[in-house]
Design a protein that fits this description.
- The structure is a homodimer.
- The first copy, chain A, contains eleven helices and nine strands.
- In chain A, helix 9 packs across helix 10.
- Chain A starts with a helix and ends with a strand.
- The interface between A and B is large, with 128 and 128 residues.
- Strand 9 of chain A pairs antiparallel with strand 2 of chain B, so a sheet runs across the interface.
- The complex binds adenosine monophosphate (AMP) (2 copies) and magnesium ion (MG) (2 copies).
- One adenosine monophosphate (AMP) sits at the interface of chains A and B.
């Protein structure tokens, strides 16, 4: 019964965030001939600039993502709907005829609009001195995804999952990155986030009174990153985990005990001090992608030894 | 020795893609006061429009990501470097003074440039009738990441990892999404990708001669998605897995046997036919994020029953 209860709670949480029938708030229609993740990403970065107003719902926003909009009829349907709902239209359409049609229809229907893909494609086209293809990612005849990067990502995810939570220390040397920290310093979500980008990640939990695996000190020390966190913040995360998962009585109360948390973090900081090669990264108040960005900046800085740290790739 | 060999191979692979000292090719400098993932995402979507030329290296591109560029000195350093390397500068800078400084310096040094964040922020600001904050994501005083969405993501990743590869069938009912398919239909990378977005995902492998867990047929059938794949494509993925992981002789040769692969896929298609509620998704030639987009489109379509399928969220 307990577990059913918490399930229903979760559903309520999600509906609260995603309920679209709800009245009030301006609408943002995001349209792509592909997945829509690019336009979604850009809109959410920009929405960060209105958080002061979104947090108190003074300017509530409903975003709606329309993916795989590949024909003119569907495009026009979405734009008419945008007009009806008083939405702004933000789009990525690789076919210039589709992009132009979107622009004209918006102008005719007085729907505010912004092209996300056009300007960057034009700028890169001029820079490279190459005419863009004008074909969406899913178009017939496009290169398949069966690239080296595709395999690298899949293998990185498989590796990373198998190495979660200190498993298989004998494989630590195969990782690109090894994350070390006490429970709930976001080791697992960080690991899978980085794996998705093609890095093989292992994470090793630090537990008071249990020695870290000897392999940790035998592998290339440049791969290892320490994670640290503010004790009050950590306590609230553990409490939330408790509420969410409904951990039973078997969970030691020391898990939430402030004194215990401080001792645990002290122990981890001492270990980090003994291993000065390990960068120590503060995760307090950082989103997963923010901590990941810091780790990758240091990783590539060490690898490439630029004056201005950068992450570089060749295509 | 075998395992050391393959490690070194992996390193070579990565260097081939990321070696920046290599001569030739145009440079793209991506600058952000935050993580840089937004500008990176936009540039990569646009680069898709030049794949015809990138594939044969006729117009090789070196991308360089500079994250956390938060002060004017570092910004000017990067722009001077862009001038020296003949790069285009693409940036997201939330502080209008920084964005303006970037623009002026590029004009002075004849560096081509494009502002990614400014246009979308201005468009949303007009639409919402709110003045943007002008503060980067890491600025002091910004809201911490300790939001509901933060916990949802972390719990979704934890849940998903525990449910990988058919583990804990008794928890299947707690998943938002359940992915079903034979080995190497990208169930695991799809699951962690979707988990990162806050969905609790379970995946259940279909193995010839082993019955699927009874729980699969007892839970809400609307949660279940079948994955299917072209047999030739599947064979090449399995062969690559073999090469990458160096699976030993214990791997049955039937794993690569075309006849066996066909029978296996036939079995999965029959199961899908018996369960017509499960949408069947073709993964052949699709990147993980492409398959994820299809799954989420159907998921939200079923949930919200719009005429034009959309993924909606409220802020
Ligand atoms: N590999 C690719 N090849 C061609 N176009 C792409 C590629 N990736 C993304 N795009 C285009 O970039 C825009 C954003 O893609 P998406 O993030 O999938 O919505 C869409 O117009 C896609 O058609
Ligand atoms: N939550 C946020 N609050 C304020 N600004 C943000 C937020 N997320 C992203 N941005 C800004 O959007 C741009 C892209 O962010 P990023 O993807 O981290 O490079 C940067 O200029 C960030 O400062
Ligand atoms: Mg963990
Ligand atoms: Mg798997």
């Amino acid at each position: 019964a307990k577990s059913d209860e918490s399930d229903r709670d979760d559903d309520r949480d999600r509906d609260e965030e995603e309920d679209d029938g709800r009245a009030g708030g301006k609408s943002v229609f995001m349209v792509s001939d592909g997945t829509g993740w690019t336009v979604d990403h850009s809109v959410h970065a920009a929405l960060g600039q209105f958080e002061h107003c979104l947090a108190d719902r003074g300017c509530a926003v409903n975003t709606h993502l329309f993916s795989e909009v590949n024909d003119i009829d569907r495009l026009m349907g979405v734009i008419h709907q945008a007009g009806a709902e008083g939405a702004i239209l933000v789009y990525t359409l690789a076919d210039p005829a589709m992009a132009e049609a979107a622009k004209r229809a918006c102008q005719m229907l007085a729907v505010p609009y912004l092209d996300i893909l056009g300007p960057i494609t034009d700028a890169l086209g001029s820079h490279l001195n190459v005419i863009p293809l004008g074909l969406p990612r899913g178009a017939p005849g496009r290169k398949s995804a069966l690239s080296k990067q595709y395999f690298k990502r899949i293998e990185a995810v498989d590796f990373t999952i198998k190495q979660d939570d200190g498993a298989l220390p004998q494989n630590l040397h195969k990782a690109d990155l090894v994350l070390v920290g006490v429970s709930r310093t976001s080791k697992t979500p960080l690991s899978t986030y980085l794996a998705q980008m093609g890095y093989k990640v292992a994470n090793v939990p630090l537990v008071l009174g249990i020695e870290a695996p000897k392999e940790l000190f035998q592998i290339d020390q440049d791969k290892i990153y320490g994670l640290t966190i503010d004790p009050t913040f950590l306590r609230s995360i553990r409490a939330a985990r408790y509420r969410h998962l409904g951990l039973g009585k078997e969970t030691k109360s020391s898990y939430f005990d402030m004194e215990h948390i401080r001792t645990e973090l002290q122990y981890s900081r001492e270990l980090f001090k003994k291993n000065p090669t390990w960068p120590v990264i503060e995760v307090t108040g950082k989103a997963i992608e923010e901590t990941a960005a810091v780790i990758l900046r240091i990783y590539h800085e060490r690898k490439n030894k630029y004056v201005i740290p950068r992450i570089s790739k060749r295509y």
